[in-house]
Amino acid sequence: MAVLETIQKLRDELNLHNYNYYVMDNPTISDYEFDIKLKELQDLENKHPEFFDANSPTQRVGGTITKNFQTVAHTHRMYSLDNSYSKEDLLDWENRIQKVLGNVDLQYTCELKYDGASISITYENGKLARAVTRGDGFQGDDVTNNIKTIKSIPLQLKGQDFPEKFDIRGEIILPFAGFEKMNQELIEIGETPYSNPRNTASGSLKLQDSSEVAKRPLECLLYFVTGEKLPFESQFEGLESARKWGFKVPKEAKIAGSLQEVFDFIDYWDVHRHNLPYETDGVVVKVNLIQYQEELGYTAKSPRWAIAYKFKAEQVATKLNSISYQVGRTGAITPVANLEPVQLAGTIVKRASLHNADQIEKLDIRIGDTVFVEKGGEIIPKIIAVDLSKRPEDSKITDYITHCPECNSELVRNEGEANHYCPNFYGCPPQIIGRIQHFISRKAMDIEGLGGETVALLYNNHLVQNYADLYELKVEDILPLERMAQKSAENLVNGVKKSTLIPFESVLYALGIRYVGETVAKKLAKHYKNIEALSRATLMDLILVDEIGERIAQSVVDFFENEENKIIIQRLKQYGVQFEIVEKININATNKLEGKIFVVSGVFTQFSREELKTAIEDNGGKVGSSISSKTDYVVAGDNMGPAKLEKANKLNIPIISESDFMMMITEN
Ligand code: AMP
Ligand code: ZN
Fold first, then answer.
1. 110: Cβ–Cβ under 8 A, 6 or more apart, which residues?
2. How far is CA 157 from CA 54, 122, 244, in A?
3. How far is ligand 2, taken at its centre, from the CA of residue 372, in Å?
4. Residue 336 main-chain phi, psi, to 5 deg
5. Predicted pLDDT of residue 216
6. 113: annotated active-site residue
7. Which of 141, 150, 228, 342 could form an S-S bond across to 69 if both were Cys, CB 3.0 to 4.6 Å?
8. How crowded is residue 448: how many other Cβ atoms within 10 Å of its Cβ?
9. Pocket perturbation via mutation, ligand 1, pick of 198, 205, 223 by most ligand atoms within 8 A of CB
């Protein structure tokens, strides 16, 4: 096959797999196989730059930097929608349009109103040509490179019957699950979490580095096709066509034959929207036939043929019983409202976030108050106002705590920061426990056999004071602990021992230096190669490293200046923890794996799959492509397919982790 043909075939295949995975939620190959094909395509494209295509699936990883987004005019104006808040409003609307149309038989398309950032994407000859934000409706920002990284947006359309050129409109959203995950990662490194999915989605569109956008689990839900010579006659058919061309068009849309049916749709989704994986804030009702839409036309701001019905943000009043204060791993204090339990949006709410001292002061929230609680895009509800008419006469202004609820140290609040902090880094129990929990977590030291609760148990029983103490734990020390059996005690000790194989970059992340997340840890590890060099770096040195800002640099310097940290690192070194970069490929070449057949599956943290395979072969082993009775070991990472897992279990083939594998080739 000619090279170009192979390239084209791979692109088509990868486009189809992207579609199956991100639009249909129905993958037909494993991530592993997908990665292999993508790599194959990438290699071919590298070798043959003459076949470059801006819409190749390889372009989805991003990497372009946009300093200033170009302002461009919309070919078709992007209108707003008129809002309605009651069924009367909708009846009025129908009367108005029936006056124009002359009381015709009307059908409506009912859709959910997705809460994100709107986008207009132009396709030419089936290829994504340009994506522009709404802006002022007449012109917006060209964010094409960022949009291409969103995998549910087709770069190449399916089928044949699309117009030569058209615009499609949609909403860029961040589903709850992805949003929570992003926030979890921020919390882990002591950063402030994002406040809601909509703002985060909308902020993502204007990120300068498109590879950062690629990392965010954004989606695009499409709702409108516009252009000349469209091959359909109604809004609903438009949605169906878009779906056929490969776009993600939610299935909830429905045709209503009357306003009564529109009301039914609204009533149903007012309740059931809480089960959707993303945020919606209403229903959009559109006159279905395009012919009628054209007769109705537009006002200065919005189409006359469509109207949004806004759901009432669910709100309840309840009593604020008390305020408690939580201390995080970094010492940040979070105030939490303890409420009289109340039903809200399908769940019973007992607690609400109060954010920080300013928020409490601004709303003048007092214990004993009746407060209004609302559930928006966030998972934790928030207090939006106080019902002053119900305030008890003897109520007192809330004095924010001045001392840590856990260790009684005086709290500090840095210039320009919203949160108070407990500065007792080494003596405050939740900070100590939180740091050790971070240390053992999967992306850090990945210690098997040890979980967050056991860490608290170990600390409370004075067995560990810091993460270096983990390496001195002995089976007989931990056996007396509650629910600790011989086997689990041994696993714990072994897990700790195995963590000495975890590479330097993960160790650096595990140390829990404020603002040093996974990515920064990688950068620093790569730049400095070992901990001595890093610990000697001055503020200036650090700032000169690519992507390291002053805030991170200062935090690193502070960490290494601290005497206790120096001692802990010294101890970790003695226990054999990795404090320098190892050139992995040459770890060793032995014949330890002679005659053994391995199958590698899933995603790994310490190695790429290729490195793992090289290591197997360098040590005399063989790599098999699928699991069979001949397989000796399956090396499993994350997301190993369930079918493979089942097969391995059925054939009784040992499944080992990458750390287990490292042990195999390094132990004597
Ligand atoms: P507004 O911003 O309140 O003027 O509402 C108009 C916006 O609602 C549009 O610009 C779209 O971004 C958004 N929207 C969300 N879902 C839909 C939908 N199903 N149909 C039309 N617009 C929608
Ligand atoms: Zn404290």
1. 253, 254, 255, 256, 261, 262, 265, 266, 283, 284, 285
2. 14, 12, 9
3. 31
4. -130, 135
5. 95
6. yes
7. 141
8. 18
9. 223
Lowest mean pLDDT among 142-146, 360-364, 570-574, 641-645: 641-645
Cα–Cα distances (Å) from 556 to 119, 189, 510, in that order, read: 40, 13, 13
Q: Flag the least confident range among 76-85, 117-126, 494-503, 585-594.
A: 585-594
Task: Phi first, then psi: give them for residue 597, nearest 5 degrees.
Answer: -110, 125
Q: How many CA atoms lie within 13 A of 220 on its CB side?
A: 28
Ligand 1 and 171: CB distance under 6 A: yes
What's the pLDDT score for residue 585?
Answer: 45
**What is the position in ligand 1's atom list of the atom closest to the CA of 134?**
10
The H or E element spanning position 539 is helix 539-544
Whether residue 440 is predicted with pLDDT greater than 90 in this model: the reply is: yes
CA 502 to chain centre: 25
Q: Is 113 in the pocket of ligand 1 (CB under 6 A)?
A: yes
pLDDT value of position 473: 95
Tell me the best of 80, 109, 115, 171 to mutate to test the pocket of ligand 1, counting ligand atoms within 8 Å of each CB and taking the most: 171
Write phi, then psi, for 426 (nearest 5 degrees).
Answer: -95, -5
Residue 666, classed as helix, strand or coil, is: helix
**Mean per-residue pLDDT for 609-636?**
88
220 lines ligand 1 (CB under 6 A): no
Q: List domains and CATH numbers for the chain.
A: 2-61 (1.10.287.610), 83-310 (3.30.470.30), 313-422 (2.40.50.140), 429-501 (1.10.150.20), 504-574 (1.10.150.20), 597-666 (3.40.50.10190)
Spatial contact of 515 and 521, defined as CB atoms under 8 Å apart? no
In contact, 630 and 553? CB cutoff 8 Å = no
- DSSP character at residue 521: H
Pick the range with the lowest mean pLDDT from 406-410, 484-488, 553-557.
Answer: 484-488
